Amino acid sequence: MLLLSKSSLVKLLVQRVGQANLSTVAGLEKFKKINYEKIGIVGVPFEKGQRKKGVGLGPKAIREAGLIDSIQEISNKLDIRDYGDIRYEALNLQGRLAANMKKLEHVASCTRFLSERVTQVLNEERLCLTLGGDHAIAIGSIDGHLKHCSDVAVIWVDAHADLNTNSTSPSGNIHGMPVALLAKELADYWPYIPGMDWQEPIISIKNMVYIGLRSVDPYERLIIEKFGIHAFGMREVEQYGIHEVMRMALERVDPEGKKSLHVSYDIDSLDVLEAPSTGTSVRGGLTLREGIYIMEEAYNTGRLAAVDLVEVNPSIGTPDDVRKTLDAAIHLLVAACGHNRRGNFADTLDIVGKKK
Questions:
Q1: Most distant pair of Cα atoms in the chain: their distance
Q2: In a domain, 201, yes or no
Q3: Domain hosting residue 318, numbered range
Q4: What integer is the mean pLDDT of 82-107?
Q5: Is 269 part of a structural domain of the chain?
Q6: Fewest Cβ atoms nearer than 10 Å: which of 179, 218, 233, 305?
Q7: One Pfam family of this protein, by short name (predicted)?
């Protein structure tokens, strides 16, 4: 039996992988790889974080558009479990409300249940796909990821920064606040929030990176500059290209290649021509090809553990708009599960019709 040294094994892997480089493969020694043969799906039909009706129908519409079948086409070996939808009852806060935080009693309850479910899925060693719903649900999904593994890096793909506090938000809609609620550096900017005692802001904002920004409020811009938050807006995508942006993003939040990755993906990061059925669309966004590439590269790290796909609203637009948006959502999600545009590997090496 031939025994290879560690350095020889790494070199062999580089030759086999082709596009990989030595430092990337060597990084595989530093973390336990995610078991991508097991996938868990969690639906969150939640729309209380913003004011437009219909986004709560997103999980049902994405499933009915063929999500599970599309993922299964990657490989028959994939073990896909649908955990159903998060159900909750609004909290009775007994009049204890935080100023300018609309529907807090709903957000606090739903996100707590979601946090517990995401932790369960990850503890069962599955890649966790969370289907929203509005982006307020990321409070729960990322918290659940952090409770499973404290060393997490977040890639926030969005047209908006979602970095307002209750004192700076122009609307009071909580789907514009999740990053500020999660980041430990911003904890002192918040008052006591009734119903949110279960959630502690423990992730460093240095472990978060934005891709796709193009609609940022003045206070959010100030915080991004003040704390040196890693942010790649559409200007940077145009300047460097999505390949280089994704490389820099991963290098900034996970330079040693050992953090568990969480991609929180707002469908409005895509240009409105690619995904018209969403509530806060902004022209000049990512192409679908660029959006897919982000997911592919996150998957290719071997460290992608959780994905949110949010803000698909099937009640907005024409039937063709809805179909186009759902199609885009499924393309993104299957890329996160390992679909390769160059073709997926066959489950067996047996060749049909092979002569004996």
A1: 78
A2: yes
A3: 35-340
A4: 94
A5: yes
A6: 218
A7: Arginase
Long-range own/partner contacts, residues 221-230 (CB < 8 A, 24 or more apart): 221/161, 223/163, 223/180, 223/186, 224/161, 224/163, 227/185, 229/205, 230/206
Domain count, the chain: 1
Q: What sections of the chain are H helices per DSSP?
A: 6-17, 22-26, 58-64, 67-72, 104-123, 138-148, 178-182, 218-227, 234-240, 242-253, 288-300, 319-336
Sign of CA dihedral 53, 59, 60, 65: positive
pLDDT tens digits, 288-319: 999 999 999 999 999 999 999 999 999 999 99
241 is a domain residue:
yes
The Cα angle at residue 221 between residues 215 and 224, in degrees rounded to 5: 120
User: Is residue 17 in a domain?
Assistant: no
Q: Give kind and range of the element (H or E) at residue 262.
A: strand 260-266
pLDDT at 355: 55
Predicted structure pTM score: 0.88
Given a contact cutoff of 8 angstroms between Cβ atoms, the answer to whether 231 and 224 are in contact is yes
Integer Cα distance of 351 and 182 in angstroms: 51
Active site residues: 135, 158, 160, 162, 175, 266, 268, 311
Least Cα distance to 266 among 291, 247, 241 occurs for 291
Q: Which residues contact 160 (CB under 8 A, 6 or more apart)?
A: 176, 213, 215, 216, 266, 268, 280, 282
Q: Count CB neighbours of 107 within 10 A.
A: 30
- Beta carbons of 271 and 283 less than 8 angstroms apart: yes
